[in-house]
Design goal:
This protein has 16 helices and 20 strands. The chain is elongated. The longest helix has 22 residues. The two termini are 32 Å apart. With 509 residues, the protein is α/β, with parallel strands linked by helices.
Length: 509
């Protein structure tokens, strides 16, 4: 069973369930939305909240009143604000769904009927499920009694029958994102490259994906000097290149060179998505400060976004074929660790002088990009990585930094991100940045100093993308996890990128 760290149930019905502990309605300013779907007493209770000014319909505002059902049972009527109508977006309802889920958990309520406008069903169910995420795999006896007393909530989304497809899509995407968050949350003593490969294989088997894993011996034969150097310090958990394939609803035949194509299969090129999956990052010999190191379990979040995308692609049966690669290593310190001053030869023959062992993500990505593009001949390539602290300095913790060589690809990802409610900002990448990465002793250095560090990461990776291949790099260091509660995220991993990637892959033809 695919773990999602979510215990709530979500159902869909075109009619209001006969028995509910809670009826929830949305309000835009002073206007109730789809209120005709509920009983007159419930509608009157909701309208009282607005008329009295208790509820103002502001974004993420949650209020409730009590209704006597006449059979000795009291029902709560919740009103969740989504803000003024002119500012309503899918993200408004996504956040409102999150606000409702948190309120239901706080009040320990079980059966909840949520009345949702048909065009916002996907957003609401996504917000509900993401806000219901609670990572508890390592919680022991402390606090166990409190969790045992909590009621498992069931949310019934009530809307037009035509919105059932949107409901199913929202459930599939949120489930995939929560799966990504669960694996991202597992500590380094649990998730390492070999164990991550087993997680991917188990998920692939259940979801209907193809999974291939390259071990350190296979990568050595291929000449993947970058990922092998990063993972060299820990012989018990060596690096892995994890390759997941979704063939696409069209049944397209594609695969690594030499494997052949199915007879009669189309020649549709796949999308290629590559994720940095450093399961723990000490910084290597260029060691990180102690205060920063504990959160380095989240250095695998680029790979987790790819993991979530591939699960969602299978659940949604997307038409577009997709290849997802998780380039996974642990960056440790030992007598076999790579060192500043070392010169590595990457898969595509490019040599790299190591100036900072803490700039390791671009090394594992470089090999994966060069190999993946050569093998799968993709129509477009996206990579995601918690690559630089510099992107947080530049853009804060609300948006990712994006660089790329193709305006149309950036634009299609921007459209997808807007629909998904995930933010990014395009940063420059050109000859100036590429020249900055050149070495006196090799082809490239892996770090050129502190100036423009996010741009350096993108510029470095560009040397592993052949000319003519549309490519975008997403530096998600600021958004992959959060240290404070957000409208539909708790502290910890966010699964950022899963929704954007799914929207993008769904739109590609």
């Amino acid at each position: 069973m695919i773990p999602t760290s979510t215990s709530v149930k979500v159902l869909f019905s075109p009619k209001l369930p006969a028995a509910s502990d809670v009826v929830a309605l949305f309000a835009s300013g002073s206007e109730l939305l789809d209120a005709e779907r509920v009983s007159a007493p419930d509608r009157a209770a909701a309208q009282r909240l607005l008329s009295s000014g208790v509820s103002k319909g502001k974004a993420n505002e949650v209020t409730f009143d009590l209704v006597d059902t006449g059979n000795g049972k009291i029902r709560r009527v919740f009103v969740i604000g989504v803000g003024p109508k002119e500012k309503n977006t899918a993200e408004s309802f996504r956040q409102a769904g999150g606000a409702l889920a948190k309120a239901i958990r706080k009040h320990n309520l079980a059966a909840v009927a949520v009345v949702v406008p048909a065009d916002r069903v996907e957003a609401v169910v996504t917000g509900l499920l993401l806000a219901s995420f609670k990572y508890t795999e390592y919680q022991g006896v402390v606090g166990k009694k409190k969790d045992a007393d909590a009621k498992p909530a069931t949310f019934t989304i009530v809307s037009d029958a035509k919105a059932k497809a949107a409901f199913d899509r929202g459930v599939a995407i949120a489930t995939a994102q929560n799966f990504a968050r669960t694996i991202a949350s597992r500590p380094g003593n649990d998730i390492n490259p070999p164990s991550l490969a087993k997680v991917a294989q188990a998920m692939a088997k259940e979801a209907g994906l193809t999974c291939r894993v390259l071990d350190e011996k296979q990568m050595a034969k291929l000449g993947m000097g970058g990922i092998l150097a990063v993972g060299a310090a820990n012989k018990t958990t060596p690096p892995r290149l994890i390759v997941l394939e979704w063939k696409g609803r069209r049944g397209s035949g594609f695969g690594v060179q030499g494997s052949g194509r199915k007879s009669g299969a189309s020649n549709t090129k796949p999308l290629l998505v590559v994720g940095k999956a450093i399961t723990f990052d000490t910084g290597g010999i260029s060691i990180k400060p102690a205060a920063s190191m504990g959160r380095m379990i989240y250095d695998k979040c680029g790979g987790m976004a790819v993991l979530g995308l591939m699960l969602a692609a299978a659940k949604l049966k997307l038409a577009q074929p997709i290849v997802g690669i998780l380039s996974s290593a642990e960056n440790h310190i030992s007598d076999t660790a790579f060192r500043p001053g070392d010169i590595l030869r990457m898969y595509n023959g490019v040599t790299v002088e190591i100036t900072n062992t803490d700039a390791e993500g671009r090394l594992v990505l470089g090999d994966a990009l060069a190999w993946g593009i050569e093998q799968f001949k993709p129509s477009a390539v996206v990579d995601l990585a918690t690559l630089t602290g510099g992107v947080i300095v530049a853009l804060g913790k609300t948006m990712a930094g994006v660089m790329g060589n193709d305006d149309a690809l950036v634009a299609s990802l921007q459209t997808a991100a807007d629909a998904a409610g995930e933010k990014f900002w395009r940063l420059p990448i050109g000859d100036d940045q590429r020249d900055y990465m050149k070495s006196d002793h090799a082809d490239l250095v892996n770090s050129g100093g502190r100036e423009g560090h996010p741009l350096q990461g993108g510029a470095f990776l560009s040397y592993f993308v052949p000319e003519g291949t549309p490519w975008v790099h997403m530096d998600i260091a600021g958004v992959a996890d959060t240290e404070k509660d957000l409208p539909y995220y708790a502290k910890g991993a966010t699964g950022w990128g899963v929704r954007t990637l799914v929207e993008w892959a769904s739109n590609e033809k």
